[in-house]
UniProtKB/TrEMBL annotation:
Pfam family, one: GCSF
Keyword list, A-Z: Disulfide bond, Glycoprotein, Growth factor, Secreted, Signal
Protein's GO biological process: immune response; positive regulation of myeloid cell differentiation
Subcellular location, record wording: Secreted
GO cellular component: extracellular region
Domain of life assignment: Eukaryota
Family the entry assigns: Belongs to the IL-6 superfamily.
Protein name: MGF factor
Signal peptide: 1-21
Keyword match DNA repair: no
Amino acid sequence: AAVPAGTLALLGTLLWAPWWALDGAPLGELSGDQDFQLFLHKNLEFARKIKGDVAALQRVVCDTFQLCKEEELLLVRQDLGIPQAPLEQCHRRTFQAESCFSQIRDGLRTYHDSLAAVLELLPEHTGLVETLQLDAANLSSNIQQQMEDLGLATVTYPTEGPGPLPVFSSRFHHQVGGFFILANFQRFLETAYRALRHLACL
């Protein structure tokens, strides 16, 4: 079946696999669990709120610095080395809940730290950025706690991808870096949201 072009554009460079490929995932013992379903639906709402806050910050960056379109900034991006937290474990045909949850948890921690660069960039919006950091930390903690409650193995992936934030050589590079941190975070959240929603529908 064809994947809508809009969906591909939304996911950008993230690895793509058809979500129906996950239907055979060994999650029967989890998907029928009432507490697990409650966790999924609660955190779907939480993820939706975080996505909204990221979108609000993206509008601020657009209005403040006239940085609005990703395709116009790709050449600058190559010089910055802004990492994209991986989520390929949420796509694979060999989908395992613990692997996907572990990557969502770790990615949220990465973006919590990355938002420090956005905080420096937008001091007049400190409240919104700090709320976003707190929400990312809380959602990460929720997922960690739920994994422990369900007896899922905690998987820690090598940190060869996301690392320390780059040192920006100019104010403009800092602004573009903030733009891509938010763009990457929004893509990450879209994929994490789809994974949680898929599990909730099994």
